[in-house]
Specification:
The protein has about 250 residues and is α/β, with parallel strands linked by helices. It contains 8 helices and 6 strands. It has a 6-stranded parallel β-sheet, sandwiched between helices. Helix 1 (about 30-35) crosses helix 2, helix 2 (about 40-60) packs parallel to helix 3 (about 80-95) and helix 3 (about 80-95) packs parallel to helix 5. The structure holds 3-methylbut-3-enyl trihydrogen diphosphate (IPE) (2 copies) and magnesium ion.
């Protein structure tokens, strides 16, 4: 994406060509803070504001599923101070956003190794998920202690258990079977994958699900990512020629 300012409007989007599922690797909070001589935690706090902006924008334009990579299985290896601060911020978000999620009919969902989260965070997560369970306008999926490879291992084990128990036969295993045993069972695959802060990598995010996602990497650091830039990316997405391996007639 160019960094030139633009003034995109959601009215310029074609409602027929909206992605059903947008997935975002929210990267660059630490660099944003460093540039301002702040600590990394302050970068994460500012990043949480961007989360609110992007969730609102998705709801406003009619995106059905938004998945945000908030904490990876690898992120547990960061300093204890940073991990604790991220968990605290997550807990705060889960409590503070309840009224907005309810007002906007947004369901909260989580994918990843939820059992590894601290108990107080899990409690708030369960409450917010329960509270919002009947909301139908949009689903916000938070990837928490999420890793694509760990998800695949979990899926293989679940299918192997069924094979052993005789519930299915190996010839019954299809792509559909695999999809149904991932955290994202029942959710359409992401059409659009965005990564902020310029890194050209996937960092273990949704490895199976992004097979045909359109990828956009922007140099903008996550705390600086805006509604305008998001709308620009959506417009550019609508101009992409998605061939899915086929040749246009
Ligand atoms: C993304 O920002 C947030 C998480 C991974 C939790 P980073 O913390 O990775 O920021 P950088 O990449 O160091 O700038
Ligand atoms: C990816 O960002 C994970 C999240 C955004 C939660 P990282 O900062 O952890 O990824 P790497 O280390 O640059 O690959
Ligand atoms: Mg990073």
């Amino acid at each position: 994406m160019s960094s030139s300012p633009s003034f995109s409007d959601s009215a310029e989007l074609d409602p027929q060509l909206l992605p059903a599922h947008v997935a975002i690797i929210m990267d660059g909070n630490g660099r944003w803070a460093k540039k301002r001589l702040l600590n990394r935690i302050q970068g994460h706090e500012k990043g949480a504001e961007t989360v609110r902006t992007i969730v609102r924008t998705c709801r406003e334009i009619g995106i059905s599923h938004l998945t945000l990579y908030a904490f990876s299985t690898e992120n547990w290896q960061r300093s204890r101070v940073e991990v604790e601060a991220l968990m605290l911020l997550l807990k705060r978000f889960l409590v503070d956003e309840r009224s907005e999620l309810m007002e906007n009919q947004i369901r909260l969902d989580a994918i990843g190794q939820i059992e590894r989260l601290p108990e107080d965070v899990r409690k708030q997560l369960q409450s917010t998920m329960q509270l919002t369970a009947e909301n139908r306008e949009m689903t916000l999926h938070l990837a928490l202690s999420y890793g694509g490879r760990a998800e695949i291992v979990r899926m293989v084990r679940a299918i192997a258990d069924k094979l052993t128990a005789g519930g299915i036969r190996d010839e019954d295993i299809s792509e559909e079977t695999v999809s149904r045993h991932l955290y994202t069972a029942g959710i359409p695959d992401p059409d659009l994958l965005i990564r902020t802060s310029g890194e050209m990598r996937i960092s273990n995010f949704l490895l199976w699900q992004i097979a045909y996602a359109e990828i956009f990497v922007t140099d903008t650091l996550w705390p600086d990512f805006s509604r305008e830039e998001f709308l620009d990316i959506l417009q550019a997405f609508q101009k992409r020629d998605r061939r899915f391996g086929k040749v246009k007639e």
